[in-house]
Design brief:
The protein is of the alpha+beta class. The chain contains eleven helices and ten strands. It is 36% helix and 29% strand. Strands 2-4-3-10-7-9-8-5 form an eight-stranded antiparallel barrel, surrounded by four helices. The chain has a two-stranded antiparallel sheet with strand order 1-6. Helix 2 packs across helix 3 and helix 7 crosses helix 8.
């Protein structure tokens, strides 16, 4: 179970700024909150260390040759903490949330190859207490935008067409891998990883961001934004996917909409103020043409949010 967070107005203002721009510099943040750059650096690092926010990049994996990503729903028949601990030991598991509803646990996997994904799924299947598993492969991120959290009047962010000023190459893929692990990775950290100067890395990263290939924003805990919580939605369509995905992206409460292949056609994450608000969101979605069914997973707590790659400690 997570520990309670002790946040003040400056913390919440910093979080809001980092949701808008996960790579905002300390020099940019300092005047926004009226503190020195050193004080802002200390506060941001505390927010990261205490898992109040996670700043990571999200991309379309297969289209860019970055691997195979998947979401997995689990039904559990034993202690939840035991299952999440064992799933969390799998290198490819980057996000684990405990929820309420038809499923008990949601897992996000980031794998290098299809074989790696199959091995990760097999490891989950044999964990004692996992009664049932449903997996979906990520095809495309339709929406990734946490800037509207807490604002029911916010409008959808339309992803720009991908236009790079240079040919996409392996250096870009390596930079994306670094930013997916740490959205605030410095140019001095990234430069030796790709064998370029800091100036060249800066130009490439800005190009990747401006093109919309990668989105970097802070993902906050509900307490940080004064909302009731988040919920995962697994959707089966009864008609064409495109119009349904567009309708879901238009919801102010939708922070993430993903097109998937598997039992479900779309997965989404929505924020809500309270149970009544979540019920209203679900009613709006049920009224959308082409909506088949919705399985809802309100988040109880996040058991793992670690988007770095490599062996788990």
């Amino acid at each position: 179970m997570p520990e309670p967070f002790d946040l003040d107005g400056i913390d919440r203002q910093l979080i809001a700024e980092l949701i808008r721009d996960g790579r905002a510099t300390y020099a940019k943040l300092a005047p926004e909150v009226g503190l020195s750059q050193a004080a802002v650096r200390t506060r941001v690092q505390r927010l990261l260390d205490e898992n109040v926010i996670t700043i990571t990049g999200r991309v379309d994996p297969e289209s860019l040759g970055l691997g195979v990503f998947a979401f997995v729903f689990l039904e559990v028949c034993t202690e939840i903490d035991d299952v999440t601990r064992l799933v969390g030991e799998i290198d490819e598991a980057v996000f684990i949330v405990v929820g309420a509803g038809r499923f008990d646990v949601l897992v996000e996997l980031r794998c290098s190859t299809t074989d790696d994904l199959l091995r990760a799924l097999d490891r989950i299947r044999v964990i004692s207490g996992v009664r049932r598993m449903q997996s979906m492969t990520v095809l495309h991120y339709e929406k990734q935008d946490w800037t509207g959290i807490g604002n029911r009047e916010s409008t959808s962010t339309v992803r720009p067409d991908v236009v790079l000023s240079h040919d996409f190459d392996e250096i870009d893929r390596e930079l994306l891998r670094g930013l997916m692990a740490d959205g605030r990775a410095t140019y001095s950290t990234l430069a030796p990883q790709v064998g370029l100067s800091q100036a060249a890395v800066r130009d490439r990263v800005i190009d990747l961001l401006d093109s919309g290939i990668i989105t970097i924003q802070a993902h906050p805990v509900p307490e940080a934004m004064g909302i009731g919580g988040f919920a995962g939605l697994a959707v089966k369509a009864s008609g064409p996917i495109g119009p349904l995905a567009a309708a879901m992206c238009a919801l102010p409460e939708a922070t993430l909409v993903v097109r998937t292949l598997g039992r479900y056609d779309l997965l989404a994450e929505v924020w809500f103020d309270d149970g009544y608000h979540l019920a209203e969101v679900l009613d709006q979605l049920r009224a959308v043409p082409g909506m088949g069914s919705i399985d809802t997973l309100p988040y109880l707590w996040i058991a793992l949010e670690e988007f770095d790659s490599g062996p788990k400690r």
